[in-house]
Design goal:
This protein is of the alpha/beta class and 229 residues long. It has eight helices and six strands. A six-stranded parallel beta sheet has the order 3-4-2-1-5-6, sandwiched between helices. Strand 3, helix 5 and strand 4 form a beta-alpha-beta unit. Helix 2 packs parallel to helix 3. The protein is globular. It starts with 8 loop residues before the first strand and ends in a 9-residue tail after the last helix.
């Protein structure tokens, strides 16, 4: 593997839950529930492959436009995962962070996320960064407004990046979107400047260690030049 191809930060757009469920003649929420099991497998794979950062796109600022029943179901599933698997996450050495405006989430989920972040803050084997009620454009506008409110009239990249949700984290080396869709959908638009991309046709509920391993193999063969030769 090229020295520039060390996979430190993996970001995943967890797409295809609904289509996976419909294909099996099940309600869409069945797919979202199955997606939690894929997330657990992915966390284990990242630990096995010594990946230090995993960012997952759990719920976007645009997802509020979905049917209310589905939105409520997703929120409940997220809350159950954080609540039921907290001790397992702690035992595995996973540190949880959030990315996005969680103040708009249901009170119960917001408080659960605060609890998980606090209880896992001293862990260091893997950082799990959960993008929830997140949109890259909203993140950039938020950063600009924070800088303007501080009285700054001109800023450096470093100062701008300090106002992003990912402040203190490395940019993603590899972004995977499940289900074969070839777009970012308002995900980490600033941070992906030199990220590599991988678009497997596998729906998120079917993700497992082998899919991650194949993605790493593909990534290892990429020649990352970062604007150089």
């Amino acid at each position: 593997m090229n020295k520039n191809n060390k996979l430190e930060h993996l970001a995943i757009i967890m797409d295809g839950n609904g289509r996976w469920a419909i294909k099996r003649k099940k309600p869409r929420l069945f797919g979202h529930k199955a997606g939690i099991e894929s997330l657990k497998r992915t966390i284990d794979a990242c630990l096995d492959f010594n990946i230090k950062y995993l960012t997952i796109f759990a719920f976007s600022t645009e997802n509020w436009s979905r049917p209310q029943e589905e939105v409520n179901g997703i929120m409940n599933i997220a809350n159950q995962f954080c609540d039921n698997d907290l001790q397992t996450i702690i035992n595995k050495g996973v540190k949880v962070l959030t990315m996005g405006d969680i103040s708009r989430l249901p009170d119960k989920l917001e408080q659960t996320l605060y609890k998980v972040v606090d209880k896992t803050k001293n862990n260091s084997k893997l950082v799990l960064n959960i993008a929830i009620n997140y949109g890259a454009r909203a993140e950039i506008i938020r950063a600009v407004n924070n800088l303007l409110s501080s009285g700054i009239k001109e800023c450096t990249e470093k100062e701008f990046e300090s106002q992003l949700y990912t402040s203190g984290l490395p940019d993603p080396d590899l972004i995977i979107r499940a289900s074969g869709e070839n777009r970012l959908s308002n995900f980490m638009l600033y941070q992906c400047a030199y990220s590599e991309f991988y678009f497997p046709k596998v729906h998120w509920p079917d993700f497992n260690k082998k899919v991650i391993q194949k993605a790493i193999k593909v990534y290892s063969k990429r020649h990352r030049r970062f604007g150089g030769l």
